[in-house]
Amino acid sequence: MKKFEEKTIQTETIYDGKVVKLQVDEVMLPDGNTSKRELIKHPGAVGVIPITPEQKIIFVEQYRKPLEKPLVEIPAGKLEDGEKPEVTARRELEEETGYTAGPLEFVTSFYTSPGFADELMYLYIADGLEPVKDPAIGDDDEFIELLELTLEEAKQYVQNNRIHDAKTNYAILYLETLEMCVQKGG
Fold this sequence. Notes:
By secondary structure, the chain is of the alpha+beta class. The chain is 22% helix and 39% strand.
């Protein structure tokens, strides 16, 4: 057995829903003891950083039930079965903002909550935005409002906890780092 590997002995599916699956795994630990792991299985997701020609970032504000409050976030959504992340990014951009973009620039991918979930999120930048004549309709239960913020305004939203999720904070940090590199000439 590898140094930190936990070998799955048994898996019990507790819930298999539209977005996630909850399972409890019994595992053998590296020292030979056993333990239980509660796991969320997720198909993966994308986040999109839409940049307007005026160099503003388009955000969506929506109510997040687990938090019992609205958050301002970058457009994002889950991968559908067999869908490539870039296709999901384009779909979510259109559904949530009514825009399409030129070539998307892949930024990175990251695990959102590796302590209990396997969700892998892909992050893209979208510029060259153009309004879609007849945009795709989003989810029936999704109510969102668009905001266009400068990077400085977005950083203020972070300080005020209006932007308070990892993917959006990561996006803002990435843009801030990019801006600093441009200012330093590299």
